Amino acid sequence: LGAGQSIQQTYDLTRYLEHQLRTLAGTYLNYLGPPFNEPDFNPPRMARAERVPSATVDLDLWRGLTDNARLAANYRAYSRLLCYLRVLDGQVGTAELRHRLSHFCASLQGLVLSIGGVMSSLGYPLPAGPVGPPGPPGASAAPNDFLKKMDDFWLLKELQTWLWRSAKDFNRLKKKVPPAVVTLRLEARGF
Amino acid sequence: DSHVQYERVGADVTMKCGSMDWDAAVTWTANGTDIDESHLNGSYLILKNVGLSQSGQYFCYEGSSWHLKYQTNLRVGTPPKEPVLMCRSNNYPKGFYCSWHLPTPTYIPNFFNISVIHGTKDMVCEKDSPPKNRCHIKYLQLFSTVKYKVTLTVTNALGKNFTTLTFDEFAIVKPDPPESVVAKPVPNNPRRLEVSWQNPSSWPDPESFPLKFFLRYRPLILDQWQHVELSDGTSHTITDAYAGKEYIIQVAAKDSDIGTWSDWSVAVHATPWTEEPKHLTTEAQITETTSVSTSSFMAPPTTKICDKGAVVGS
Question: Do A154 and B145 touch (CB under 8 A)?
């Protein structure tokens, strides 16, 4: 699969996940109950939530990212988000929600692999070092139930924002990496 | 002394003639017209249940010397109601703008103050020059999970009010309509129309933030629109147009991932290509015209037309 198709596939998967998460997040926030499922709920971001990788980025910095840095940022973020999400998945009380969460985790795992595939097809090394989270924010570490729910709220919100950022990232890459050219370059280097 | 005096509609107003005693002989005028004695209580002017029409310049003169003792500009109005505030990003990711208006006029000057807070950060809102009630905020960061909180406070001499909007960055993204919409017939294709348009010029980076489009079209003779969504490119060929019928066409735009659809573009009209009538002899023309007039509303040739024999009573 050429890099161009691989990027397109990753973009499509991102859009699919974004759509999936919209309904899943709504269901989960209803499961958490008020105030977490209220549209205007706008809590301060606690220090605990900072451990979840933030999609927020300076505009010029984001524009200036190299393809490698752009992909690596996505790869690291989803690898960590996946770990946090798996912790969530293990604690949910309702079977239906647990099923949907694990299905989503599987799809997110697919995205991580897809990003890795794009990086390899472009000749970039996968990010070294620990990709998983230092310590999941939602685990028993949360001193009380409300803070645990707050962690879950920010995790879902960050994940939603990452998916939206990634759609833009892969859009940019699609434009910069036309399928044919890349294949030739790889062949020339004896792949 | 002279100054501006603001009073609410319906208020009772008492004006003192400067330093003149209550029982001094005075004359009051409003916008140059003497005020009837019935409005006076001694030298005081009493205005009951003032209305907007009683706004104006009020003068008080000492009875005999006609010295001006008091002057005021009475402005009758109302305190501001809760303002209507709208924020929108039509040039994402550059920034967004907020615009506002009062639901009802106050008839006196109002002063607006807007604050934009992102998390803990105060953001500058560059105001347009009056009378435009609008200001612009530049995004410093993108893809933020923290909501923006915009508070608009309106103050006038008679009161104060405010409103607050809280929103996510992606929720207010709404492009302007597509521009330069053009629709053309396709020669030798009686059922096709070629439509093209451009990204709204206010959308700064269609490369990184591509738009998708929604095209709607219908023949003028029908009310039902047909729609088609297009995620790539800025042109489309309609292939199912009714032959010879004038069409109205509009386009809308949306960021391919976030936000809401733009308003519809300006409508354009076009009629599919039709064959030029041939230069025939008179008799041929009559025959041709008769057959053309009966077939102009015929369904597309692919549809089977029932046989003459099958028609009841023919």
Answer: yes
